[in-house]
């Protein structure tokens, strides 16, 4: 909306809701494809294969949605003028989200799984603390605070 200089309206917000749903669906589609392929091939190959095999359906979904809202941009009907904001948001957002999904979902997949491209483990982004470790850390910090007070 900033690039086109148009004001935001309720129809624009509806376009954002539609955009979020399609973008999340594209990301889920890539992750699901990688997970299925991961059972039969190494992680690096699974990421590449999922990107190539899932690209066509993702582009088909994106392009059909964009093509379906293009007529709303060129309308002069007083009843549909307010729908222009929705079409601008959907077209721009789908182009950006498709490009970002294809380039950002695979690295985030690796980051969240705690693996490298070659399949070796690395320290995960979010470590789960077990109760024994948490209680030991609490006892150590309490002992340090008692030693500092004396």
Q: Write down the overall mean pLDDT.
A: 80
> What structural category arises from helix and sheet content?
mainly alpha
Flag low-confidence runs. Answer: none
Quick one: biggest sheet?
none
The shape is flat
Number of strands: 0
- Radius of gyration over alpha carbons? 24 Å
Q: Beta-strand percentage?
A: under 5%
N/C terminus separation: 62 Å
Helix content: over 70%
Number of helices: 4
Element order: H for helix, E for strand: HHHH
Index terms:
150 residues; mainly alpha; 73% helix; flat
Describe this entry's structure for a reader.
With 150 residues, the protein is mainly alpha-helical. The protein is built from four helices and no strands. The radius of gyration is 24 Å and the shape is flat.
């Amino acid at each position: 909306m900033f690039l086109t200089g148009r004001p935001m309206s309720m129809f624009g917000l509806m376009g954002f809701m539609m955009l979020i749903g399609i973008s999340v669906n594209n990301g889920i589609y890539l992750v699901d494809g990688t997970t299925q392929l991961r059972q039969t091939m190494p992680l690096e190959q699974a990421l590449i294969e999922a990107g190539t095999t899932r690209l066509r359906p993702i582009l088909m979904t994106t392009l059909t949605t964009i093509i379906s809202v293009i007529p709303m941009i060129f309308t002069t009907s007083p009843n549909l003028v307010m729908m222009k904001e929705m079409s601008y948001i959907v077209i721009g957002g789908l182009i950006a989200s498709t490009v970002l999904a294809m380039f950002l979902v695979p690295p985030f997949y690796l980051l969240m799984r705690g693996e490298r491209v070659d399949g070796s483990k690395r320290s995960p982004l979010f470590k789960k603390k077990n109760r024994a470790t948490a209680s030991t850390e609490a006892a150590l910090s309490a002992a340090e605070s008692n030693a500092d007070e004396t």
